[in-house]
Amino acid sequence: MHLAYPAVLAVLLFCTGLYGVLARRNAILVLMSVELMLNAVNLNLVAFDVWLRDALHGGQALTLFTIAIAAAEIGIGLAIVLAVYRNRGSSDIDSLRDTAETDDAETLPDEVDADAVRDTTADQATAPAGKAKKAEATA
Amino acid sequence: MILSATAGHPGFLSPTGVEIAFLLVGLATFGAAVVTVTTKQLVHAALWLVVALGGIAVEYLLLTAEFIAWVQVLIYVGSVVVLLLFGLMLTRAPIGRSPDADSGNRWMALGASVPAAGALVWVVVDAFRTTWIDLDGPAQGSTKASGEFLFRNWVLPFEALSVLLLAALVGAIVLSRKDRQDRKDRKDRKDRPDRSDGRTAGQVRPDTRARRTGPDRTERPAADREDNS
Description:
Chain A is an all-alpha fold and 139 residues long.
């Protein structure tokens, strides 16, 4: 068999998984796309192992290990997604913005106090707005 | 490689039967994968993932890696997809079409993945243009061969992997288990109409914290009295 067939199929599957990881909104669909990427890597490993006729069969052994690690990964990932769903009421990745760096939410409280003492009311107006946005995101 | 020497470089235009089968199954697999990442129905995505993973198992069979093919069927099709379906059910995924399955950066994702696919296909085809896999002879991935290389050369990683699986099991249980503090909070908040569970202790709004310290203050002396007596 021509080696290009499994290699090209693996490339296409990997890029499909890449698209899914970047474009999907639901966390479980992102996990599915990660599984597609892992399977593309497995296909490459098996194809090159069969091509090289390795005495140790490192490609196939690594494929088995990757499958086991992917099973563990999906278990942990689903546990995390379920915990997020229990806390937030949705498994929507785009709404998890607690650690996003917005301009007004990342000022420390000490700096806010110092600025409030030193400056005029302009800073006082923006800083609580950032805090309120942050609280809204965590609620 | 030996096949190419004997048959004199078969080339792309005279494919063998195995290559035709690989191509057809590969097309089906790729189509199922594309539907998996583009469909709007979440449960259908999981079911198309079954088709894609099963197609990859058939490709393993065509590459004479039998044992990995059956492991793929057992673990991926058998357990991972079932886990994903359970996850979809537990997060109350809508059954019908959900219009917000794709996020806003869909076109950026398309712009990232399509050029990547094009460049990689170009590189791979150019690199392996004159390379053939010799599939003749004894199967390289039969169960006997797999057992021999796995338990002769790869025993230590195999055992380490069992430790990792145990750690993953314990970790999944710890992550998905509600601890007692959380349950007590939920019991406290159950009578409130606007309860929104899961807010951790550090993020509680000031008014709810004040309300919760009320009964605690009355309980705490009682507990101290029990300790003293």
